[in-house]
Amino acid sequence: MGKPLFILSPIPGQEAANSDFLLERGAAARVNRVEDLPYRIQPLLGSKKLADMAKATRALGRPRAAFDICAACCERFGALATR
């Protein structure tokens, strides 16, 4: 959807790694507490920083991911069914 993300308490392990990936690429911002969210969002509204975050998010997006996964599964299982 090309929308920046605000990350709050990612689950340790894979989700923490995913959040680091997004943060490093400028597609997300970290929020330590839910109560801090309005203070983090307000200065971004209408700013170049928010536009840059949205651009980074769109660059990372894979809008056809679900279709591609289904196609790969069908291809693989189709190949198994013919054996």
| Neighbour order of strands in the largest sheet | 1-2
Instruction: Kindly estimate the percentage of residues that lie in beta strands according to DSSP.
Output: 5-15%
Helix content: 55-70%
Number of domains: 1
In DSSP terms (H or I, runs of 4 or more residues), the helix count works out at 4
Identify the overall geometry: elongated
Average pLDDT confidence is 89
CA-to-CA gap between the ends? 40 Å
Biggest β-sheet strands, sense, barrel = 2 strands, parallel
How many beta-strand runs? 2
Structural class label: mainly alpha
SSE string:
EHEHHH
How are the elements arranged and paired?
Blueprint: E1 5-7, H1 14-24, E2 28-30, H2 37-41, H3 48-60, H4 65-81
Parallel strand pairs: 1-2
Tell me what the structure shows.
The chain has 83 residues and is mainly α. The protein has one domain (5-81). The chain is built from 4 helices and 2 strands. It has helices at residues 14-24, 37-41, 48-60, 65-81, and strands spanning 5-7, 28-30. The chain has a two-stranded parallel sheet with strand order 1-2. Helix 1 links the parallel strand 1 (5-7) and strand 2 (28-30). The protein is elongated.
